[in-house]
Design a protein that fits this description.
Blueprint lengths: L1 E3 L4 H8 L6 E3 L3 H7 L8 E4 L9 E4 L2 E5 L4 H6 L1 H6 L1 H8 L4 H6 L2 H7 L7 H6 L3 E5 L5 E5 H4 E3 L2 E2 L6 E8 L5 E8 L10 E10 L2 E10 L6 E2 L1 H7 L6 H18 L6 H25 L3
Parallel strand pairs: 1-3, 2-3
Antiparallel strand pairs: 4-5, 5-10, 6-7, 6-10, 8-9, 11-12, 12-13, 13-14
Helix pairs in contact: 10-11, 11-12
């Protein structure tokens, strides 16, 4: 087995050209868990941990670039992420346990593409995108809604790696929040999760984006929920009504699955909890 640890884009491109059959890793929290107790073989392992540029969180004009090797705790604690993209900060603060948050990376979370992943819904709700590079050094941007195709499947080509996640500067008066329900408060995988972004003016929602996770093969944007919220007051009653709408949507999307009755009811409380966070943010910011 060959082990590669590039330090810059030129070296990364060179390794990607010869990585067929290998694995790209960083924090290894998912990689090692999947290999635990099993006989595994890999022709090559490519570690991104020495690419310092992929560990940065920085503005690039009106876009915040979050490196793929940024760990969850770094993102959760970042003042700029907490200020402008609170849903992402909330999601990263609830991933696994402290040890996982200090080791696991955003790129790994998306690369693993678990239907129950906590990072993808905020990326959808915040109009995010991924910047990826191939073995020829060519860079392209994949919108978040095209990034994950299903469990363990992404839109990346076999010779591509994620460099950064791009988040456009939110609109004026835009806020966001994230919530999840698991079997316990800490060290838990989401049974269902939700990210909501909304432009709020005079306590009224002008427009919104709602991303639901751990329901379908991958998180998705609910167009019905977004249409419903437009023009509604930002109140607990609206949150409860959103829960009713999402309950019907869950029932339709996973009809026949054993988990449907539970998730159909759980999403009601989840919507209300997420709205409570949105309302608190709006009050804090005078919206």
């Amino acid at each position: 087995m060959n082990f590669f640890q590039p330090t810059n884009r030129e070296e990364l491109a060179s390794v990607l050209a010869s990585l067929s059959g290998g694995s790209i890793v960083a924090g290894c929290t998912d990689f090692l868990a999947q290999c635990n107790g099993k006989v595994w073989h890999a022709d090559a392992i490519l570690s991104l941990t020495e690419m310092q540029e992929l560990k940065n969180i920085e503005w690039n004009g009106d876009t915040l670039a979050v490196g793929a090797v940024c760990v969850h705790s770094q993102v959760a604690q970042s003042p700029v992420v907490r200020q402008y993209f609170p849903a992402l900060a909330m999601a990263c603060s609830q991933v696994g346990c402290a040890q996982i948050r200090n080791r696991g990376t955003l790129g790994g979370s998306i690369g693993t593409s678990s239907p129950a992943g906590d990072v993808y819904p905020p990326l959808l709700a915040l109009c995010g995108a991924a910047e990826v590079m191939n073995s020829r050094g060519e860079v392209r941007t994949i919108p978040a809604r095209e990034l994950v195709l299903g469990k363990g499947k992404t839109a990346l080509a076999g010779d591509e790696a994620i460099l950064r996640f791009l988040l456009p500067l939110p609109a004026e008066h835009e806020i966001s929040a994230f919530g999840k329900i698991g079997e316990r408060h800490q060290v838990t995988i989401s049974k269902i999760n939700l990210a909501v972004s909304a432009v709020v003016k005079n306590s009224c929602i002008q427009r919104a984006r709602v991303a639901l996770g751990a329901v379908a093969p991958h998180a998705y944007l609910s167009e019905d929920a977004a249409a419903f919220l437009a023009g509604k007051p930002l109140t607990a009653e609206t949150g409860a009504a959103l829960g009713d709408l999402l309950s019907s949507e869950v029932e339709r999307v996973i009809a026949g699955r054993g988990s449907m009755p539970y998730k159909r009811e759980a999403v009601r409380g989840l919507a209300q909890d997420t709205f409570t966070r949105l309302i608190a943010l709006a009050q804090e910011r005078g919206l």
